[in-house]
Amino acid sequence: MKGFAERVATVQEYYFSAKLREVNQLITDGKPVINLGIGSPDLAPDRMVIDALKSTAENPKAHGYQNYQGIPELRIAMAEFYAREYKVTLNPNKEILPLMGSKEGIMHVSMAFLNPGDQVLIPDPGYPTYTSVTSLLGAEPIFYGLDLEKKGRPDFEALEKLDLSRVKIMWINYPQMPTGAAGSKEILIELVTFAKKHDLVLVHDNPYSHILNPEPLSILAIPGGEEVALELNSLSKTFNMPGWRVGMLCGRADWVEAVLKVKSNMDSGMFLGLQKGAIAALSLGKNWFTDLDELYQNRRKLVWKMADLLQLSYSKDSAGLFVWCKVPEGKSPDELVDWLLYEKNIFITPGKIFGPAGENYVRISLCMPEFKILEAINRIKP
Ligand SMILES: Cc1ncc(COP(=O)(O)O)c(C=O)c1O
C-alpha cells in the first residue's frame, strides 16, 4: 500500500469518537459514569414522530431509494417551519435542501465553495468540524474571537485588520456552541454588512435556535442576508432526534443547487420513514417548545449548582444545550476533567477541544435527567 491520502494527516479522529470509546470502556468495566460531555438529547421525539416512522416502515413500498432533494412534503414542512419560526419565506423547490444532519452539510457546503488554499473564518471557540472539514479540503482555517460580554459579537475590529482577500467562507453559529452566546439581530446585521463588504459566503449554523433561546434568529431574516448567507438547521436538538440525522440547508437557489450537485454524488435521499417523522416533528405546536424550555431550564439550574461546587464561573445569560464554565486561575482544566472522570465517574468536556480560546474552560451538557445531575452533585460534595 502506497500510504494514505495526505488529507488524513490534516485531521485527528473526532474528540468524542475517541473519548467515548474510553468512557464506554469504563462503563463496561462497571463504572457508573454520568455523561455530561456530549450534547445528545436523551429524551424521545414526540409520539406522532415515532408513529409516522413506524407506519411508514410497515409499508412495503416505502423502502426504495428516495429523491435526492427529499419528498416535496418534507421541503414544504421545512419552508412552513421557517415561515412560522423565523418569518422567512423560502421556495421549497429551490431554496431548501434536506440533509442528513447539519454536520454533513458543513462538509458539502465547504466542498461546493472551497478550493485548496482558500481561507475560512472560524469562531474560536467553535464547533471543531468547521476546522477539520476546512483542513480536509486543503483550505486554511483563520480563527476569530468572540466577545462573550456582548452576546458573542465577533471581534470585527481585529478581523478588519486582516487581509481577507483569500477568505471565502465565514462560519457563524448563534446560539453559539460551546459558549452559549445567544447572538442578536444587531450582530447578524453587522455580519451581513461585513460579508457584503468582503465578498464572503456567510454560513450560519443554527442547530440550537430553539434551545433555551426566547428569540430564535435566522440570518435569512436579516435584510440582505438572503444575498450573502446560507443557513444550516437541524432537527437533532430541537426535536430530540440526533440519531435520526435530519437537517436542512436553506438559502439562495443557485448556492443550494451547487451544494446539491456535490451532495447528490455522495449519498442518496433519506429513508422515507425518517422524512415522514421529520414532517410530523416540524409541524409540532408551541407546547413542544415550552415543555422543552422548562425541562432544560430545570436541568440548567442544577448544572449551575454543580459548577458552583467546583468553583467554576459561568454566565447565566446563555442559550443552547451547555453551560460554558471558566476554571479558576491556577487550576488546570485537564486535571479537573480527569479527576471528575476517574475519581467521580463524571464526564465533562475540556474547552480546549473547541479551539485555543477554550483553554481555560470546560463544557457541561444539559442532556441528562435531573436525578443524574443531582447524583453528580452528590458525588462532588465534600
Ligand atoms: C454547532 C454545531 N453544529 C452542528 C452540529 C451537528 O448537528 P447535527 O449534524 O446533528 O444536525 C452540532 C452537534 O453537536 C453542533 O454543536
What can you tell me about this protein's structure?
Keywords: Aminotransferase, Transferase. Belongs to the class-I pyridoxal-phosphate-dependent aminotransferase family. This protein has 382 residues and is α/β, with parallel strands linked by helices. It has 2 domains: 6-45 and 286-380, Aspartate Aminotransferase, domain 1 (Alpha-Beta Complex), CATH 3.90.1150.10; 47-282, Aspartate Aminotransferase, domain 2 (3-Layer(aba) Sandwich), CATH 3.40.640. Helices cover 40% and strands 15% of the residues. It is built from 13 helices and 13 strands. It has helices at 15-28, 47-57, 72-86, 102-113, 128-136, 156-160, 185-198, 225-228, 253-263, 272-282, 286-309, 333-344, 370-380; strands spanning 34-35, 96-99, 119-124, 140-147, 153-154, 167-172, 201-205, 229-234, 247-251, 322-326, 346-347, 349-350, 361-365. The strands form 3 sheets. Strands 2-9-8-7-6-3-4-5 form an 8-stranded mixed sheet, sandwiched between helices. It has a 3-stranded antiparallel sheet with strand order 10-13-12, covered by helices on one side. Strand 4 and strand 5 form a beta hairpin. Helix 2 (47-57) runs antiparallel to helix 10 (272-282), helix 3 (72-86) runs parallel beside helix 10 (272-282) and helix 4 (102-113) packs across helix 9. The mean pLDDT is 96. Pyridoxal-5'-phosphate (PLP) is lined by residues 39, 101-103, 127, 173, 177, 205, 207, 234, 236, 242, 247.
